[in-house]
Design a protein that fits this description.
The structure holds 2 protein chains of 2 kinds. Chain A is an alpha/beta fold. Chain A has 8 helices and 14 strands. The two termini of chain A are 32 Å apart. Chain B contains 13 helices and 16 strands. Classes of the chains: A alpha/beta, B alpha/beta. Chains A and B meet through helix 6 and helix 7 of A and helix 8, helix 10, helix 11 and helix 12 of B.
Chain lengths: 254, 362
């Protein structure tokens, strides 16, 4: 397993946001993380990305226990996160954004040619045909193209796990389709993808496994091939569905 | 068993070398040696043979980044051998002249009046393709067997000898394949699906068909008539004469025209559009359940407007599929959208032609 979370818990003061959460993600698969607002999805990924420290439990990468205390630690382990708000610089072009903060140099000057070539290779390996001019400023791109750049930026750094927090939330229908295909392609090229979404259609379109959080606890992790929409909805809204889901302290399904 | 003679052996090896380069692109001699399992000197002799005949050339290729002389690359000469590929759709005929190695040398298309007869489609194809290419292949949506289009919802043809019509219009021989199978071949050979042992391609046009490629070979005997799987016994009447066909239940022709509109409306929150998409997704999932159970694919590609339908209604599609297939069959099943998009059928038609050409060289 590329990433294994066992017994993760996290408190903000007296509030227990995550309690005893287990999740494992392997290379080549898309794991969707679903749950209602406040279920703890974003907190969980922020723990993995090193933005929040954890109060209990263990994070293993390639089977080795790791303490991820900052985003830099996460990046060093090949974990990249793409946020909802994308964090791109409008005044820079596509190549400059992709390499921002990690520019290639040749001696004292920037190696523009090498960066442009690498950017083009990355985008073409992801079968991105929507961005024609790599030197156009990001401000001139559509929402879907921006999301594509943000995802490509995460992929460029030999990353192994890409975490996407609601990447299609702000997109139109056609752009959503493109981003979904891109997410699937990332995993098919051997990356692990942790994908947070509210939209069950999007989840079913790309996920190999579906992990449902309910009030800070992991209700169930299902194979997408076996799951049905109504099962997942029940897990999100009540934490259980038939034989699946959470039990109370006495082992009884509430 | 008699051993093949030297000349025959050499011919076969030449075909294998050309096939390898056609499919995998420029390679060094060392890579070719490894891929074909032939001796280094044999490769050198074959390569110079084929260079003499103009089929391939050697170039000073990519630098490996390390010190030393960059290795020479062997590559196909696209213009040396070409295939004329034609795709007949309800509203137009598309043509591509594809060179060795997969490069598109020429491309054009012509409009086709709705309800056009095979003869006028053949005339349009003749106009576009002329006598270009060493082999000519046409992709036609529907049930195609040995050049005869037995049934095509999309074109409204039944029992038409399209191969003969094309031959009469152009004075040359044509292979006729069905669009879905052609697209499956295209995606397997030039797309992203070459790891699939059994690849199922679903084609959404004005009818719904599916093509099967097993270990890189198109299934013989025509496509799977996905649109005429009955999903609702005693349901709506279908143009084919049955009742409750997938096509009829989905009102598929409407989607062929306005899938964008339907998915957009559903995305904006139109409850009626969302319900319709949801129901269509369920119907598709159920019909797919039958196809998966019968053919056991490890990858399904949603082509044509089914791409939009799948990406907008994946939850009902997968939910229905999960309820209609055995766990063993669905656990290794990958659902994907095609990377070649609209080009799949033309690409696949060309690849079908190249497979025949290279077979003939053996």
């Amino acid at each position: 397993m590329l990433l294994e979370l066992t017994g993760i818990s996290k408190r903000f003061g007296p509030v227990e946001v995550l309690s005893d959460v287990d999740l494992a993600i392997d290379a080549g698969e898309v794991c969707a993380l679903v749950g209602d607002n406040g279920a703890g999805k974003s907190t969980l990924v922020k723990c993995v990305a090193g933005i929040h420290g954890i109060d209990g439990g263990e994070v293993r990468v390639d089977g080795e226990a790791r303490h991820i205390t900052s985003p830099r630690d996460a990046a060093a382990l090949g974990i990249e996160i793409v946020y909802q708000d994308l964090a791109l610089c409008d005044n820079l072009d596509v190549v400059e954004n992709l390499f921002l903060g990690r520019e290639r140099r040749r001696g004292l000057v920037l190696d523009d040619d090498a960066m442009e070539q690498l950017a083009a290779e990355t985008l073409s390996s992801l079968a991105v045909r929507t961005i024609r001019n790599l030197r156009q400023p990001v401000a001139s791109l559509s929402g879907g193209q921006r999301q594509t750049v943000a995802i490509a930026k995460a992929v460029l750094w030999n990353s192994r796990l890409v975490i996407l927090d609601e990447p299609t939330a702000a997109l139109g229908v056609a752009q959503t389709r493109q981003v979904l295909e891109l997410i699937r392609r990332l995993a098919d090229q051997g990356l692990a993808v942790l994908y947070i979404s509210h939209n069950l259609n999007d989840v079913f379109a790309v996920a190999d496994r579906i992990a449902a959080l309910y009030l800070g606890r992991m209700a169930a992790v299902l194979d997408a091939a076996d799951a049905t929409q109504s099962q997942v909805v029940e897990l999100i809204t009540s934490g259980r569905s038939g034989q699946l889901g959470l039990t109370d302290q006495n082992g009884v399904r509430p | 068993m008699a051993r093949p003679g030297t000349e025959e052996l050499r011919r076969r090896n030449r075909a294998a070398l050309l096939g390898q380069l056609h499919r995998h692109g420029p390679q060094t001699r060392a890579e070719l040696t490894e891929a074909l399992g032939l001796n280094r000197s044999t490769i050198a002799a074959l390569a110079s043979d084929l260079a003499e005949s103009g089929h391939l050339q050697e170039t000073t290729g990519r630098s490996t980044g390390s010190a030393g002389r960059p290795s020479t690359l062997v590559e196909c000469v696209p213009k040396a051998l070409a295939v004329a590929a034609v795709e007949i759709r309800a509203d137009r005929v598309r043509f591509a002249l594809v060179g060795l190695g997969g490069e598109v040398l020429e491309r054009s298309e012509a409009a086709l009046a709705s309800g056009a007869e095979p003869v006028s489609a053949a005339a349009a194809a003749a106009e576009l393709a002329g006598s270009a290419g060493a082999e000519a292949v046409a992709a036609v949506p529907g049930l195609v067997d040995a050049g005869i289009v037995a049934h095509s919802t999309e074109l409204g043809w039944a029992g038409r000898d399209v191969a003969a019509d094309l031959a009469a219009a152009t004075g040359r021989e044509w292979r006729v394949v069905d669009t879905a199978t052609a697209a499956a071949v295209g995606e397997w050979s030039r797309g992203d699906a070459h790891e699939a042992t059994t690849l199922l391609y679903l084609h959404g046009g004005r009818g719904l068909t599916a093509g099967l490629v097993v270990e890189g070979r198109a299934q013989r005997g025509g496509s799977i008539q996905l649109g005429h799987i009955v999903v609702e016994p005693n349901g709506r009447e279908c143009a084919c004469g049955l009742r409750g066909c997938l096509e009829a239940e989905m009102e598929a022709f409407g989607y062929a025209e306005d899938i964008e509109e339907a998915t957009l409306a559903a995305g904006m929150g139109d409850a009626a559009a969302r319900d319709a998409l949801h129901r269509s997704g369920e119907d598709l999932g159920r019909a797919l359940g039958a196809v998966v159970t019968a053919t056991g694919p490890d990858e399904i590609l949603f082509g044509g407007w089914l791409r939009e339908l799948y990406l907008s209604a994946a939850a009902p599609v997968r939910s229905a599929l999960a309820g209609a297939t055995l766990p063993h069959l669905r656990s290794r099943l990958r659902l994907r959208t095609p990377v070649l998009g609209d080009e799949g059928a033309l690409t696949g038609a060309a690849e079908t032609g190249f497979a025949a050409l290279i077979d003939r060289m053996r």
